[in-house]
Design goal:
Helix content is about 75%, strand content about 0%. Helix 1 packs antiparallel against helix 2, helix 2 crosses helix 5 and helix 3 crosses helix 4. It is flat, with a radius of gyration of 19 Å. The model has no long low-confidence stretch (mean pLDDT about 75).
């Protein structure tokens, strides 16, 4: 019979409390703060970066579950195929709002705007960042 370790329960309860605070903080930030900042060019740029950072940090926080459960990546594909494109497209939108890219082709600007303006790509980039950085670590073999 397996013995329950209270430290794992406490860790998971603390993680859940942090997730509730993160969700509450995101809602509060969206309802109370961001609409006040969106006046003027500097405010719009700040809001654009915040819209990138909030889902990215949420993904990082969610990836702690993978790290704690000894999730191991066995190949380089998670970093190359998922993390790099999602990070590129999610960072491209705030960069385009910050720096004047008037010489870029319209289709590329439109594609980056469609792919990077939502919360999904920064969330995916944050969620895959920590597990993809654990590439060099050896995987555990299961005993039979």
């Amino acid at each position: 019979m397996r013995r329950n370790d209270p430290s794992t329960w406490i860790t998971k309860i603390v993680w859940l409390a942090g997730l509730v605070l993160l969700i509450w903080g995101r809602t509060y930030l969206n309802e109370q703060v961001l609409w006040r900042l969106s006046s003027g060019r500097e405010g719009v740029i700040l809001v654009t970066w915040i819209y990138f950072l909030i889902p990215f940090l949420t993904g990082l926080y969610l990836s702690l579950l993978l790290i704690w459960s000894d999730f191991r990546v066995q190949d380089f594909s998670l970093f190359v195929v998922i993390l790099l494109p999602s990070l590129f497209f999610s960072l491209a939108w705030p960069l385009m709002r910050t720096v004047d890219f008037s010489k870029m082709p319209y289709l590329l600007v439109r594609l980056i705007g469609i792919l990077g303006a939502n919360e999904i790509l920064p969330l995916v980039a944050g969620f895959t960042l920590l597990p993809s950085l654990r590439i060099g670590q050896p995987t555990r073999k299961r005993r039979r």
